[in-house]
Amino acid sequence: MTVVPATRRRPGGAAFAYGGAIARVIARLKYERRPDLARPLGDLLARALEPQRALLSDVVVVPVPLHANRLTERGFNQSALLAGRVAHGLRAPLWALALRRWQDTPHQTTLDRRARAKNVVGAFVARQAARIHGRRVLLVDDVRTTGATLGACEQALREAGASSVEWAVVAQAEAAT
Prior knowledge:
This protein is α/β, with parallel strands linked by helices. It has helices at residues 20-31, 38-49, 68-74, 78-90, 113-120, 129-132, 148-159; strands at 12-17, 59-63, 99-101, 124-126, 136-144, 164-172. The protein has a single domain (12-172), classed as Rossmann fold (3-Layer(aba) Sandwich), CATH 3.40.50. Helix 2 crosses helix 4 (78-90). The chain is globular.
């Protein structure tokens, strides 16, 4: 079930390749306001991480945040809902507000690879650096396309002193590296 690239030696990864039914369910979750779909998707992601439980034993689970404007528009943060299920499955603490997206950037889906990376540089900040300092973090999102958003979040967490940052996503686009 897990589509973790063979070259990836760190824990985490993607539960599925992005496409087909998974892509349709993720789109319904986000754009058709179906937060109820986060529970089965999050449970599938938690199940995909189960073989790595020992490697993830001391992580705190942190979702990729939405900007306040997007959160108001959508009504929920799909990554936070997914992260809650992952934290439950791993029996790990969920720090839903560890990161803040302080820049309201354009949707990543409208941008090419280079523009995606530029779009999110400096867009995230850790809320309580002292709390994050020295902790291992598992960053959760719905989709990894280029890795730009996860990379920008990782940068903010590392600047706050996280000892390591791993990521887990429901689906990874084929072009992601």
